[in-house]
Amino acid sequence: MKKRLIAFTTMAALTAFGVYAQDAEDPFADAVETRHGLMLQMASDLGTLGGMAKGEAAYDKTAATKAAANVAAIASVISMAQFPAGSENGKSADSYALADVWAKQDDFLAKVADLNNAAAAMQTAAATDADAIKASMAQLGGACSACHKAYRQPES
Ligand code: HEC
């Protein structure tokens, strides 16, 4: 009984702050949150690989192959499904995706394909040694930054 009262009070407070209203007005909130989660996980895995490439961390085959497999799996998930039309920067809260994602969709998807290819190459490198990871880092990091340069509004 007490629990329910607390739940109700919390809900009333959230409603008062317009939390629910805001979500209802931004139909793209979930998609934006989903793509941010995918991107952040890739950044974390890239950090693991980068640490070994730079010699900051010892080469660990299990950790390296896991990180590379994660990036490959996430790359295979990225599609227009997380980028519904209308969810660009300025129109959807928290979105830094530029309108060109949709205006130049073929090129955007080609960059997704580049990411998949780079992630596949990194999987081979990750199973080899730190030098191979280092050599493969340019292609993978390059795939990230090529897309960001064209399609992501820099956070200022
Ligand atoms: C095909 C295009 C594309 C590729 C490839 C790509 N990204 Fe992104 N990334 C984006 C876009 C667009 C955004 C902005 C999304 C938004 O704010 O809605 C973004 C945002 C991010 C963010 C910010 C997330 C946040 O919470 O604001 C990080 C971190 C990130 N990407 C990491 C990576 C890493 C690491 C790679 C490579 C392993 C990568 N991205 C590859 C398009 C791409």
TrEMBL record:
Keyword vocabulary terms for this entry: Electron transport, Heme, Iron, Metal-binding, Signal, Transport
InterPro entries for this protein: Cyt_c/b562 (IPR010980), Cyt_c_II (IPR002321), Cyt_c_prime (IPR012127), Cyt_c_prime_subgr (IPR015984)
KW Lipid metabolism (keyword) present: no
Domain of life: Bacteria
Signal peptide: 1-21
ATP-binding listed as a keyword: no
One Pfam short name: Cytochrom_C_2
Name listed for the protein in its UniProt record: C-type cytochrome
Organism: Cypionkella sinensis
